[in-house]
Design goal:
The complex is a heterodimer.
Chain A: H1 2-26, H2 33-40, H3 54-63, H4 75-86, E1 104-108, H5 118-122, E2 128-129, E3 137-138, E4 158-162
Antiparallel strand pairs in A: 1-4, 2-3
Chain B: E1 10-11, H1 13-20, E2 24-26, E3 32-36, E4 46-47, E5 54-55, E6 60-63, E7 73-74, E8 79-89, E9 92-102, H2 123-132, H3 145-148, E10 157-161, H4 171-194, E11 198-204, H5 210-220, E12 225-230, E13 233-234, H6 239-247, E14 262-266, H7 267-279, E15 285-291, E16 299-304, H8 309-315, E17 323-328, E18 335-336, E19 350-355, H9 372-376, H10 383-391, H11 395-400, H12 411-415, H13 422-476, H14 480-502
The chains are: A mainly alpha, B alpha/beta.
Chain lengths: 169, 503
C-alpha cells in the first residue's frame, strides 16, 4: 500500500518536472503581439494604410482600431498571414487603401531633376542621394517603392517601376 | 563490395540499358553559331568582342564578372562575330548572345599551351587553368568548376559521377566508353587541386561503360581510384543521392557536399579539364544524347556549344511523324522547349523528343493518401503532406516540412495513382518560398533604415531645440560680461569728462 503511494508520488513528481522542462525549453520567444504583427508587414513605410509607418499600423491592429486589410503593398498574402496570426477570417486587401502591386522601386529621370531635395526629405528609408541644385538618384537596393516621393516632385521626374530582381542564389 | 540499395527511387533499368548502346557521332560544324554569355549558374560573362570582329576557335569571347560566381565563354570555332543581341537561351533567362558565322577553317587560338604532363603543374596553376577554360559542371547544373574545386574546403573525397541521373540519357556513358583514360587524367588533376586522397568513380550497374572504365583504372594503377556500381535506379545519379549512397551520409539541408568533405563532379567535367590541359582546347563542345520516341535514329552526338538544336536533330535522322515535344534534359526532369532554333549550351546533356504516346492525357483525381510518393521520394519528404500544405497556402509550414530539399525529380508524379502534378506544385511553391524570403530580407532591411532615419531625425530635432533654448536663455538673462564692459566704458567716459574739465 505505502510503496504503491510512494511509487505513484515519485512518478508524478518526475513526470511533472519533465513536463515543466519541456514547456520551458519550447516556449516561444517573448515577442509582443505588436512585434509579431509588425514582422508580417512589408515595411515599405508608405503610409497607404493611413498610419505613418508600419509599426504604428501594427500597433493600431493590436489595439483593434485598424482592420487587417489595409496594407496594399503587402497584398493579399499579408492579409492572409495577419488573419492566420490573429485567428480571423482572411479576405482581400480593401481597395480603399490602394491596389496590391508587385515589388517596385522609384527611378528618377536624372535629366529632368532640378535638385529640389523635396524627395530626399520625405524618403522614409534614406534611399535617395543628392544635394540642393544637384541631380538626385535612387539607390535601388534601398528603395521600398513606397511612392511617397511621387506627389512631391515639382517636375514629375520620378517613376515607379517593377523591381528588376537580381539573381537570388 | 557491399550492395548499395536505397529506399527510394524508381527502377527504370530497361530503357537505361537500351540507351546505353547508342552510337557516338560528331555533328558537322554549323555555319552559324549562337553562344549565350550566361552559361553558368552565377553571373553572365561580359562580352569581349564586338560585331564584325574575327575570332579563332577557343578564343575567349566572354570574361568572368569580377569577384562574382561566373564562368568564361569561348568561341566554339573560328569565324566572324555577326551580331550581339539578347536572345532566348534554353532552360534559362534570355541573355546576351554572340552570333558567330563560321569560316569553316576551324583555326585554333594559339595562346593555350599543350602540356605533355599536366600533373607536373602546381595545384594553383591547375586551378587557374580550370577557370580559364570556362569549365562548368556538365551534369546540367553549370556550377563553375573553379569555384567548386577550392583547396581550402578540406575535401578528402572526390566523387566522379558517371551514373547518369535520368533514364534514357547516356552521354556520360558514351564518353566513358570512348575516353576513359582522359577522364581519369582530369580526375587526377582535380585530386591535385583539392589535395584530396580518394576518388570514387560511380557508374550504373549493367552499363556498357563499366568495362572500359574498370580497364582504364587498372592500367592507371593509382591506389586512390576505385570504381563503384550504383543500382540502376532513378535518381541515383543525382549529386546528393549519389553522395548518400556512397558515403551513407546525407548532405545537410541548405548545405553543400563540401560540408561533409566530399566534392562531386561529372565525368564530362573531368574530361573537359584534361582536354584543356593536354590539348589546349577550352570547353567548346560536349556530348549530347538525342533520343526518345520522336526521333528516327537516337544517338549520342558530340557537338560544339552554340550549334542550333535543329542540326542535332538532323544528325539523329530527323523527327518521326509522331514527335510531339522537344524536351531539354531527360524525360523526368527535362523542360519542354518552344522550338529547335535555340542553341546548345554547356547545360544541355540531352534532348528528348517525346512522341504522342508518351504524353499524359489523364486528369487529376483527389489524393487517396496511399503514401506511394513518400516511399519513392529521394529527399525523404512527404509529398502528400507538402501538397496539402501548398494548396492551403501555408508557406511557413512548407519550409519546416523541408520543401526546399525537393530536387524536382518527378518520382512522386510518376507513381501517383491519382495523376496529381505534384512536382509542378512544388516548383511553384519553391519559387514562392524564395520570393517570400526575398521580401522578408527587404522588409527587415527597410525597417532598419527607417528606424535609423527616425533616430537621426529625433536627434537633430533635439539638438535644434537645445540650441533654441540656449538662445532664448541668453536673451532673457542679462549677460554679466556685457554689463561689466558697459560699466567700464561708463567709467572711462566719466574719467575723460573730468580730464576735459581740468583742462
Amino acid at each position: 500500500m505505502l510503496t504503491g503511494i510512494f511509487i505513484m508520488a515519485g512518478l508524478a513528481g518526475l513526470i511533472g518536472t519533465a513536463l515543466l522542462l519541456v514547456t520551458r525549453s519550447t516556449q516561444e520567444t517573448t515577442e509582443t503581439p505588436v512585434q509579431k504583427i509588425n514582422a508580417l508587414l512589408p515595411q515599405t513605410q508608405c503610409a497607404q494604410c493611413n498610419y505613418p509607418g508600419c509599426l504604428l499600423y501594427a500597433k493600431a491592429i493590436a489595439d483593434g482600431t485598424a482592420d487587417i486589410d489595409q496594407c496594399a503593398p503587402g497584398g493579399d498574402a499579408t492579409v492572409t498571414a495577419l488573419a492566420n496570426l490573429l485567428g480571423r477570417s482572411t479576405r482581400k486587401v480593401n481597395p480603399v487603401y490602394g491596389k496590391p502591386q508587385p515589388l517596385s522601386v522609384a527611378v528618377i529621370n536624372e535629366a529632368a531633376c532640378i535638385g529640389c531635395v523635396l524627395c530626399i526629405d520625405i524618403c522614409p528609408v534614406d534611399a535617395i542621394v543628392g544635394a540642393s541644385r544637384y541631380t538626385h538618384t535612387v539607390i535601388q537596393k534601398e528603395c521600398t517603392g513606397c511612392e511617397l516621393c511621387i506627389p512631391l516632385c515639382p517636375v514629375d521626374c520620378i517613376e515607379i517601376v517593377p523591381l528588376h530582381r537580381e539573381h537570388i542564389p | 563490395m557491399s550492395k548499395l540499395q536505397p529506399l527510394w527511387g524508381i527502377n527504370f533499368s530497361r530503357p537505361a540499358i537500351e540507351s546505353g548502346g547508342l552510337p557516338l557521332i560528331t555533328a558537322p560544324l554549323p555555319d552559324q553559331l549562337v553562344v549565350p554569355l550566361n552559361q553558368n549558374i552565377g553571373f553572365a560573362a561580359r562580352a569581349l568582342v564586338t560585331e564584325g570582329e574575327q575570332v579563332l576557335k577557343g578564343q575567349p569571347i566572354g570574361a568572368i564578372t569580377e569577384n562574382k560566381l561566373s564562368a568564361q565563354v569561348h568561341a566554339p570555332t573560328s569565324g566572324t562575330v555577326t551580331r550581339l543581341s539578347v536572345q532566348p537561351v534554353p532552360g534559362q533567362d534570355p541573355a546576351l548572345c554572340i552570333e558567330i558565322r563560321a569560316d569553316g577553317g576551324d583555326h585554333a587560338w594559339p595562346k593555350y599551351t599543350q602540356h605533355k604532363d599536366p600533373l607536373k603543374l602546381s595545384p594553383t596553376q591547375l586551378h587557374e587553368a580550370v577557370s580559364e577554360a570556362g569549365i562548368v559542371g556538365l551534369g546540367g547544373a553549370m556550377f563553375p568548376t573553379g569555384a567548386k574545386l577550392n583547396p581550402k574546403d578540406g575535401v578528402n573525397t572526390l566523387i566522379l559521377n558517371g551514373a547518369e541521373c535520368e533514364p534514357r540519357i547516356s552521354c556520360d556513358d558514351s564518353l566513358m566508353q570512348d575516353s576513359a583514360a582522359t577522364i581519369l587524367l582530369g580526375a587526377q588533376v582535380m585530386l591535385r587541386i583539392l589535395a584530396a586522397d580518394k576518388c570514387v568513380i560511380a557508374v550504373k550497374e549493367h552499363t556498357p561503360a563499366a568495362k572500359p572504365m574498370a580497364h582504364a583504372i587498372q592500367q592507371l594503377n593509382d591506389k586512390r581510384f576505385s570504381l563503384v556500381f550504383v543500382p540502376a535506379l532513378y535518381p541515383a545519379g543525382g549529386e546528393r543521392q549519389l553522395i548518400e549512397l556512397l558515403t551513407n551520409t546525407e548532405v545537410p539541408t541548405g548545405g553543400l557536399p563540401k560540408d561533409i568533405g566530399v566534392v562531386c563532379q561529372n565525368v564530362a567535367t573531368a574530361y573537359a579539364i584534361a582536354t584543356f590541359l593536354s590539348q589546349g582546347e577550352p570547353l567548346i563542345s560536349r556530348i549530347i544524347t538525342v533520343s526518345g520516341g520522336g526521333i528516327k535514329q537516337p544517338a549520342n552526338i558530340m557537338a560544339r556549344i552554340g550549334t542550333p538544336i535543329s542540326k542535332l536533330i538532323e544528325c539523329a535522322g530527323g523527327y518521326t511523324n509522331t514527335a510531339s515535344r522537344l524536351i531539354m534534359g531527360g524525360p523526368m526532369m527535362g523542360i519542354a522547349l518552344a522550338n529547335d532554333k535555340l542553341p546548345v549550351t554547356k547545360a544541355c546533356n540531352s534532348f528528348y523528343i517525346a512522341d504522342t504516346t508518351e504524353l499524359s492525357t489523364t486528369t487529376e483525381l483527389p489524393c487517396i493518401r496511399c503514401g506511394d510518393c513518400a516511399t519513392v521520394c529521394p529527399a525523404h519528404l512527404m509529398p502528400q503532406l507538402l501538397l496539402q500544405t501548398k494548396r492551403t497556402n501555408d508557406y511557413s509550414q512548407l519550409a519546416t516540412l523541408g520543401l526546399p530539399d525537393c530536387m524536382e525529380c518527378g518520382c512522386c508524379d510518376y507513381v501517383c495513382p491519382s495523376n496529381i502534378p505534384l512536382t509542378l506544385e512544388f516548383i511553384s511553391a519553391k519559387k514562392t518560398l524564395r520570393d517570400i524570403a526575398f521580401g522578408k530580407n527587404r522588409a527587415s532591411h527597410a525597417e532598419q533604415r527607417f528606424n535609423a532615419r527616425n533616430e537621426r531625425l529625433e536627434k537633430q530635432s533635439e539638438q535644434r531645440e537645445r540650441q533654441l533654448n540656449q538662445q532664448i536663455e541668453a536673451l532673457e538673462t542679462p549677460d554679466t560680461s556685457t554689463q561689466n564692459a558697459l560699466k567700464e566704458l561708463l567709467l572711462r567716459t566719466e574719467k575723460n569728462k573730468h580730464k576735459d574739465q581740468k583742462k
